Amino acid sequence: MTATAMVAEFDDVAGWTADAVERLGDQYAIPAACRGSASPAALAWLAEACELSAGTTLLDVGAGVGGPAAWAARRFGVRPVLVEPMPTACRAARRLFGLPVIAADGGRIPLRTSSIDTAWCLGVLCTVEDKAALLAEIHRVLRPGASLGLLVVVVARDNRWQPLPDGNHFPTQDELANVLDRTGFTLLEQTTRPDSTPLSWSRRVEEVTAAVTAQHRATPAYALAARQSERLGRLFSSGHLSMQLLHAVSR
Ligand SMILES: C[S@@+](CC[C@H](N)C(=O)[O-])C[C@H]1O[C@@H](n2cnc3c(N)ncnc32)[C@H](O)[C@@H]1O
User: Taken in order 212, 216, 221, 225, is the CA torsion positive or negative?
Assistant: First the structure.
């Protein structure tokens, strides 16, 4: 990913989102801070597959603004630990949810080996070139037998004719299964992300997006981030990409 596009999409917009949520109210925080396109149904699938329960340590790698981890803490009583490389996104997650956030790359997680019960990594693998390094590091910090929940955008049809969002490296299904196996994970199940999102959730996302647009539409970072999401949206609607939920366990 070009550094500028990555910073616009994952750092500038993260900070603007937290600002807008603080103006609009707490009830906007979780939907607006789920920035890997997780919906309540997708999060529920991952939570049930990983058998989350009260007290489970949930490591969220590439946690962004922290919406998915905050959702899991509220619904299941897990103890989240967030890892995120973008400084403004880290601050946004702390501001909105008060969660513990480690500013680090997922390829070098400053946590002890076998210290984590469950990990999530949602919407991150497709933005990372060296998927094996990221997964191997998650494998190192997970205890043996622990669950990994993934949300991954995969290539559904050859997309050579359409412009990709800058810096994305979408895997094919075979590449994804292969890299999971090579890094010590057994893939247990997989499903296409459910389409339906309740209006109560999507309305809050839209209001925060409108507030961010009203305030920042004239900035170059906004234009870059908007171009990224337009390209992604076109690839989904033309059927070239598909969003998958996966449950794997660490061997
Ligand atoms: C599409 S966002 C998803 C954020 C969050 N997981 C969610 O679902 O709301 C992708 C996130 O991955 C992070 N990311 C990109 N490269 C990463 C890396 N090498 N290690 C950890 N996180 C990374 C980005 O900074 C960004 O916050």
Answer: positive
CB 69, CB 96: distance < 8 Å: no
The Cα–Cα gap between 169 and 179 comes to 14
Distance between CA atoms of residues 233 and 230, nearest Å = 5
Which pLDDT does position 157 carry in this prediction?
83
Domain map (residue ranges) of the chain: 3-250
- Enter the CATH code of domain 3-250: 3.40.50.150
Q: Pocket residues for ligand 1 (CB within 6 Å)?
A: 10, 34-36, 38, 61-64, 67-68, 84-86, 89, 105-107, 122-124, 127-128, 134
Q: What is the CA radius of gyration of the chain?
A: 17
Q: Which parts of the chain register pLDDT below 50?
A: 1
The mean predicted confidence, pLDDT, of the chain is 94
Strands 142-155 and 116-122: parallel
The CA 122 to ligand 1 mean position distance, Å, reads 7
